[in-house]
Amino acid sequence: MLQPGKAVKVTIYLSEGATHHGVPVYSSILDFLFYRGVSGATVTRGMAGFGADHHIHSQSTVEISDRLPIKIEFIETRERVDAILGRLEELSGTGLVELQETTVVKPAQVSKAARPVAPEHIRIEGKAQMMRIYLSEEDQWNDKPLYKALVEAMRANDIAGVTVYRGILGYGAHRRMHKDKPLLHPHHGSVMLSAIDTQEKLNAFLPLVDQMVSEGLVVFSDVDIIKYAYQPPDNAGAK
After folding, report:
1. How many CB atoms lie within 10 A of CB 222?
2. Tens digits of per-residue pLDDT, 139-193?
3. Most buried among 21, 75, 114, 226, by the most CB within 10 A?
C-alpha cells in the first residue's frame, strides 16, 4: 500500500486495437498490474489522437475507431516500478511508456465494507387496533391521490404498516355505485387503507387523518396480534 512521500507515476500510451496473444494489450497490462499488487491503475480512452505513424484517429471515423488512443496510469513506489518496468515495456510493444517523479500527499484508503447484519426478529403478541379508511380513488390531496398521500404520511409517522385495497364494487354516502371498470373509469373506484398499530400511535395519527380526509369513513377495531417484526440492531455502540 502506498504511503505519503516520493513515488513514481507511470503512464502508458497504447492503441486500442493493439493485442497481445489475442487479448487487448491494455487488458493484459491491467491484469499484470493487478496480480503484481500495484496499488491501483486507471484506463482511459481518448476521443481522438495520433501516434508514431502520424495518422489521425478519431471516434467519428468508423473505419479506425478501434485504433483510438488508450492511456493507462498508476502510481507506485520506485522499487516496485523498477521491478516490473521490464515486463511493462514488453507488453506495451510499440506503445509509449512515461515515468514521472511525483509526491503522494494522501494515499487512497481501502474501504471497509460493513459486515451484513442478519435481521433479528422478535415475536410480538397482544392487543392493538386496526384503522380502516374508506375513500374514493379519485380523491386528491395536494395534487396527488389521497390514498398515496396517506400511505406516505403513515410511513413518515412510523405507523407499523398499511395496505391499500382497491374495491371492485360498492357505494358510499352519495349512493353512487362504484364498479371496477379499468377501461372506462380507471380512477373512479373505491379504496380502503388498513393499518394496524398500537392504540396510542393510531390515536396520535388521527388528527392528521382529519386534516387530509375531507370526505370518507374511518373505522377503528380492536384486534389481537401475533406478529413477527424486524428488530433493528442495537445502535448503542454507534458513533
Report:
1. 9
2. 999 888 999 999 999 988 888 889 999 887 766 556 566 555 554 445 567 899 9
3. 75
**DSSP state for residue 18 in the 8-state scheme:** -
In the CATH hierarchy, which fold is given to the domain comprising 120-231?
A: Alpha-Beta Plaits (3.30.70)
Name, in order, each residue with C-beta under 8 angstroms of 5's C-beta and a sequence gap of 6 or more. 103, 104
Yes or no: domain 5-104 corresponds to CATH 3.30.70.120: yes
Say yes or no: do domains 5-104 and 120-231 share a fold. Answer: yes
How far is residue 61's CA from residue 121's CA, in Å, rounded to a whole number? Answer: 60
| Residue 234, number of CB atoms within 10 A of its CB | 8
Distance, CA of 163 to CA of 69 (rounded, Å): 56
Does the pTM of the predicted model rise above 0.70? no
Residue 14: Cβ-neighbour burial (10 angstroms; 0-12, 13-18, 19+): buried
The torsion angles phi and psi of 212, rounded to 5 degrees, stand at: -85, -35
> Which cell numbers in the block locate residue 106?
494522501
Domain residue spans in the chain?
5-104, 120-231
Q: What is d(CA 130, CA 163) in angstroms, rounded to the nearest whole number?
A: 11
